[in-house]
Specification:
Keywords: DNA-binding, Transcription, Transcription regulation. This protein is an alpha/beta fold and 314 residues long. It is 38% helix and 23% strand. The chain has helices spanning 15-25, 28-35, 39-53, 70-94, 110-127, 179-185, 215-218, 231-238, 249-252, 284-299, 301-304, and strands at residues 58-61, 65-68, 102-109, 131-138, 151-154, 163-177, 198-201, 223-227, 244-248, 259-261, 267-277.
């Protein structure tokens, strides 16, 4: 650009907020919704930032949405560092000894997010009412690289990335049926009693993790009559009393309408991992929440292992 340097457009730091949301959602409309503004405001602020920097930050297409250019990728690294530094500074200035505040988005597997994380967070807010949450209990992996969440709980440990990660807990899944099912179709005392039974399971080609492929290992060649990508849908189907399902104990053991079968023979053990970006781990609200969730998991080990039927909260 030519002319007096003093008259050249300079980046508006606030425009970086709009840039970050578009980079994370890849849609102006989604970014606008998260920011609480209209989509024209987001478009205008992103264009202003591109003009001030003299470079294109997004490649725009109808199918792919707003994809970062190489220059946009480079800016994203610095913008996220600035965002985290600002959050840390606000915590320090606000006074950590007084009230923790802020926003946290948590991504989790569907059942654990619904039946464990959500009630635990509701109780957490009694102690820290100035912290608000978005909870994403979804039947897929949540992308921290796209900042879909600040903190994630999943059934596979991330293999790469700038993350802090630790095992949250082990949990068990067992075979369940309703008393009505057993009355209609006969009790299940041994593996031989599973012959010819109807089962509920996942849609094989849409299963987001191999950790969920356990039914075929336990009952090879079984007759699966209902499949769903949602374990909560499988749970609801099992409650109808027409088929058997392997379900997480932390969900099914809390429901007296379901009875575990072959408890010493059909036991599937899996693990939950908790992780977040390295720079976010230093935030006080993330640290306190991380420890709270670990404590809640430890306190509820009996439920997670199928040896109790009630969630224990503070």
């Amino acid at each position: 650009m030519s002319g007096n340097p003093g008259t050249e457009p300079r980046p508006d730091w606030d425009d970086l907020r709009y840039f970050l949301e578009v980079a994370r959602t890849q849609r102006v409309s989604a970014a606008a919704q998260r920011l609480g503004v209209d989509h024209t405001t987001v478009s205008r602020r992103v264009r202003a930032l591109e003009q001030a920097l003299g470079t294109l930050l997004f490649d725009k297409s109808r199918n792919a949405g707003f994809a970062l250019t190489p220059e946009g990728q480079q800016l994203l690294v610095y913008a996220e560092q600035m965002e985290t530094a600002l959050q840390s500074a606000c915590e320090q200035v606000a006074g950590l000894g007084q009230t923790l505040s802020g926003h946290v988005r948590i991504g989790s597997t569907e059942a654990f997010g619904t039946y464990f994380v959500t009630p635990v967070l509701s109780r957490f807010q009694r102690e820290y009412p100035a912290i608000d949450f978005d909870v994403l209990p979804v039947p897929r992996f949540v992308s921290l690289s796209k900042r879909e969440a600040d903190l994630a709980i999943t059934i596979e440990r991330p293999q790469r990335g700038p993350y802090v990660c630790s095992k949250l807990c082990d949990y068990r899944l067992q075979l369940y049926a309703t008393p009505g099912y057993l009355a209609r179709y006969g009790d299940v005392k041994t593996f031989a009693d599973l012959a010819g039974r109807r089962f509920i399971s996942y849609v094989d080609e849409l299963t987001f993790s191999n950790e969920l492929r356990y039914l075929e290992d336990i009952v090879p060649g079984c007759n699966v009559v209902l499949r769903s990508t949602s374990v909560i849908a499988q749970y609801q189907a099992a409650l109808q009393g027409e088929a058997l399902a392997i379900l997480p104990c932390f969900m099914a053991a809390q429901d007296p309408r379901l009875a575990p079968l072959l408890v010493d023979d059909v036991v599937v053990t899996r693990s939950f991992w908790i992780y977040c970006h390295e720079e976010l781990r230093t935030l006080k609200r993330i640290t306190v929440l991380w420890d709270y969730l670990r404590d809640a998991a430890h306190r509820n080990d009996a439920l997670l292992q199928g040896k109790a039927g009630q969630l224990r909260l503070h």
